[in-house]
Amino acid sequence: MTQTLTISLTGTTDLPPGKIAAIVTSLEMRARPPERPDPPGLEGFALERIGADELDRYLAMYRRLGERWMWFSRLVKPRAEVAAILGDAKVETYMVRREGTDQGLLELDFRVAGEAELAFFGLDEAVLGQGAGRWLMNRALALAWGKPISRFWVHTCTLDHPAAPEFYQRSGFTVFKRGVEVDDDPRLKGQMPRGCAPYHPVIG
Prior knowledge:
The chain is an alpha+beta fold.
C-alpha cells in the first residue's frame, strides 16, 4: 500500500515513528568543465573496476564509507538486485586503491541514454584531507565525459558529508532541484547499527 504525507511548505511536518527524512539536493553539468590538475603526492592511487562477482567486497566498502552518514540505499535492496546493477554493462563501478588496499568507491550510471549519474562517490576517512577527493573527481569527470553524454548529474542529501554540495559545485556542478526524501529508518530494521549517525536520533 502506498503511503503519503502532506508536507507543510511554511513550517514543520511531523513524521510517523520509524521514518527518517533528508533534504536532497540535485546538481548537474551540461558540458565538461576545464581540467584541473591532480594534487601532488597521490601517485599511489588507482582505480580498479569491479563487477557483480565482487558483491561482498562492494557492500563492505559501501558500508565502511557510508555507515557514519547512514547511507543505506544499497543495504536495503535484495542482494540479487544490487548484483544486477553491478553486472549491468552500463554501470561502471570502481574501487579506489592505494598501496594494495581499498580506500574508496566510484560508481557511474549510464543507463539513461545521453546521461551519466554520479551514483556513489566516497573515500575512507584515512585519505581525506590529502587531495584524494579532487583526484577521484578528476577520474569521474574523465570517465563520464569520455562517453557520448550531454548531462552529468549527482544528488546528495543531509545523510551525507555536509561539505558535499560545496565540493560538487567547486567541481563544476550546478544545483537544479531540491526535495525531501522520506524512508524507513534502517536502524530499526537491523539493516544498520542502531548507534550510527547519532545526529539523526532513532525514533520508533
